[in-house]
Amino acid sequence: xxxxxxxxxxxxxxxxxxxxxxxxxxxxxxxxxxxxxxxxxxxxxxxxxxxxxxxxxxxxxxxxxxxxxxxxxxxxxxxxxxxxxxxxxxxxxxxxxxxxxxxxxxxxxxxxxxxxxxxxxxxxxxxxxxxxxxxxxxxxxxxxxxxxxxxxxxxxxxxxxxxxxxxxxxxxxxxxxxxxxxxxxxxxxxxxxxxxxxxxxxxxxxxxxxxxxxxxxxxxxxxxxxxxxxxxxxxxxxxxxxxxxxxxxxxxxxxxxxxxxxxxxxxxxxxxxxxxxx
Length: 278
Known about the structure:
278 residues, alpha/beta, TIM Barrel, globular
């Protein structure tokens, strides 16, 4: 990663699963630099003046995927509100480059909202990744506090619009608990996401990246049985695969969710990770 000048969300977001994932050869590439134009109050990724888009980035990611012989890759990005297309073009170039160097690799992209620009969403959909993910992160009431530059309805519309454009692409989303939400709000959020046609869901414990400062504090730590209840609730609403547990993150063991939904055999990672797997 360092040799190719690549960025991973594993490092930038201080993911608690980084050691385990990297040991197993799993990493989530983060494109469009390492500085975000937004300042969500749950996120460890740096915010500030973004860098110029690196013209070599797509090929470098693709070559790394080939060198690592990845069967499945997750590609995400910082939010780039400064770019006319929100960075969608760089997603397309990266998908195409991975397809060129590793045609058998399955591709999941975790996209920002692109300001809900239809042309940006269309360009990513037309590049035909296997999974398109967009995270809700939290319940509607907490958006002004936790995601002041985003919008609850806008994020739902991203999922709904992508689903309408190509029903063959798996839709995925995720959210955190422990930010001050109530159980009835979690139920409403889960139902809203299910209504978009999304069938892959992750639910994890929020862990504040810092004490004080711009990050909101942890309001509660959810017990394992409650995560099991959230999982069953989501399955009852029609989700095909749900990862729900304290250390679950949106890209963690992403291949497992895809394979399960695609009808392939699933390994029971739960015995290794302590996470709850449908």
